[in-house]
Amino acid sequence: MRAALSIVTGLYQPCGTIAADMSKAFTKESEPEEPEREPMPAGGKNYVTPKGLKLLQDELHELSRVERPKVVETVSWAASNGDRSENGDYIYGKRRLREIDRRMRFILKRLDIAEVVDPKQIGDHDQVLFGATVTDAGDDDIEKTIRIVGTEEANMARNEVRWIAPIARALHKARVGDTVEIATPSGSNPIEIIAIHYDDE
Question: Domains, the chain, ranges and CATH?
Answer without folding.
Answer: 2-116 (1.10.287.180), 120-197 (3.10.50.30)
